[in-house]
Design goal:
xanthine dehydrogenase activity, Aldehyde Oxidoreductase, domain 3, iron ion binding, 29 strands, 24% strand, Aldehyde Oxidoreductase, domain 4, 5-stranded mixed beta sheet, 8-stranded mixed beta sheet, molybdenum ion binding, 779 residues, alpha+beta
Amino acid sequence: MDKSTFEDRKAIIAGPMHGSLRHDSAHKHVTGTADYIDDIPEPTGLLHGALGLSDRAHAEILSIDLSEVAAYPGVVWTFTGKDVPGVNDVSSNGSHDEPLLAETLVQFHGQPIFAVIAETRDAARRAALLAKIEYRDLPHWSDIDGALANGSPLVITPMTLHRGEPETEMPNAERRLRGQMRIGGQEHFYLEGHIAVAIPGEDDEVTVWSSTQHPSEIQHIVGHVLDIPSNAVTVNVRRMGGGFGGKETQGNQFAALAAIAAKKLGRAIKFRPDRDEDMSATGKRHDFLVDYELGFDAEGRIHAVDATYAARCGFSSDLSGPVTDRALFHADSSYFYPHVHLTSKPLKTHTVSNTAFRGFGGPQGMLGAERFIEEIAYALGKDPLDIRKLNFYGQPGSGRTLTPYHQEVEDNIIARVVEELEETAEYRTRRNAIIAFNRDSRYIRKGIALTPVKFGISFTMTAFNQAGALVHIYQDGSIHLNHGGTEMGQGLYTKVAQVLADSFQVDIDRVKITATTTAKVPNTSATAASSGSDLNGMAAYDAARQIKERLVAFAAEKWNVTPSDVVFLPNRVRVGESEIPFPDFIKQAYFARVQLSAAGFYKTPKIHWDRKAGRGTPFYYFAYGAACTEVSIDTLTGEYLIDRTDILHDVGRSLNPAIDLGQVEGAFVQGMGWLTTEELWWDDKGRLRTHAPSTYKIPLASDRPKIFNVRLAEWSENTEATIGRSKAVGEPPLMLAISVLEALSMAVASVADYRVCPRLDAPATPERVLMAVERMKRV
């Protein structure tokens, strides 16, 4: 046994849990050396696919003539829904309401009707424009107002949350008001568009490389359309160039089309739509219309809430059920409602089916709640922050801890977060200064707002809260890690590798992160709901635990010591009084025939949900945060600047503070875009006109707050037994951007001396800000 003194041994490993470590691919991202699917060397004989899209919003298909398409030079095959070997459906929820290729009816402008396979991508795209399709137009509507006016059906059964006696208590409130808020949608605008490559195998086998957040669903859908079992389909993804929820279900169609053509032609097939096609044919964040009635007292304490959240869902159900459910789950924001009635209204429209987007309905629900607070504050002539604090959930035993869905809020730290930020951002002093500035400024008006975030963490579908991981240790001590989570730039791979390095007490460069594949970890859930680190980190930890238990038992037996005498130290193992370098220890374990591989598994405890009853514990815990934003608007043009933002966000005991800070900053800016410049617009023919960077405006680097102070609540630690007592960070910070809209609202309200609520809808484009200013002038 090696008994050297280890003079140069490290006191700590490189890359432990809770340490700041760069993203494993950061250097590749900035140098352009990170391989995405379109960078993979193309197989010999690769063919390219393109979509044939409808040019009607709602119509019967009378005839399809693809003769000119097939005759175009380089075209190898054209196919329609009739050529699908299995079931012509790619619905993610089994509703069979989303055909892969429309056969007799189109239900949105840009819906795929046929596909073209050609020798080159250019030939396929050009040929797709030559189809001759006859239609019989049907009535269509593309927005919530049109859906309501036409008695549109719902795409899925709505949900209702009810607690207390809102029907009888609303009339008993001292003050009451009614209102309405429009909340816009959002395009994901991932840098890497959708793409899929399918490679045929022998017999019924096919391998698919897909830019997807949900490899197991791609596997299921490909098997569905090919009429083959899941064990014949292997789906791989090393990384995505962004996802944000837009690649949870929307990649299904491209993978399915590529797989069908690959098996038919016996050649590799690639589908990579153009950005315009991608934006036209894939879903977005749901826009909402919120109708509300509030009952409150003279102090501003909420007594009763009755609200309906109507959503533009598109032509099929997709994920609209759980999205609108989560909107209701977050319609309380951080506030206790003694009596509450909330209802969703998932409306069918003749537009592309809307889908998951960072926050998954939660941002829309929370934004509605902040409007409630704003309405009360202006009605009473008070600072909105005072109304917020007055209505916060209380601590256990206060009688103010039960949510509208009957879950107790047991980990509430929102008051501490808000009070700390209020002090460090000097909110009161700055607000008084802004009011004084507005009193004397003729054209430029300022606003400031401090808003909270309370976001529930877990899939509301209980079965999805599970994960697996596969860990191998090789004879040289190097470690192979695979798990069911997908990497889309958020740093999941790095965090889970840190978990494994910490478990074995080895430097992180000893851990090899490998591409997510259904061939190694089966039946995975989507990397979504901010649960990637929680689920996959714990699964990897479980795999490490199994291997370590075997190694400890081996060492205890071999060297005749107790298990407690076997300790994993940085890059070595202490057995009794001796220390062995980790690679040597592993080599000896191998020769002793110790199994050095394990499949880890984790399922989130404590959660359950009864949707029909509207009761349960859908969330394992809550993540909290707060943001204070100051803005300036030009009342002559409606243009504005984000002058300063201060953020304090709760990630529990951070697994990687550097990555978490990046997530908070990025989420805030994305949320800011949703609420300010990003506007989706359909014309009267149901055509999406904002389908490219020329017409759809995401924030620029220059749009970020001029002063941007972001801190993590370093004192926070998850009360639940999550991995490292950390908390999710993917989605919750997006809602910090609500402070931007609220600050803009205050600036607008100053035009009427803060006497009325401006009711500024989202997105608050300069045009909307200007129109709101003009309304205030008429008050």
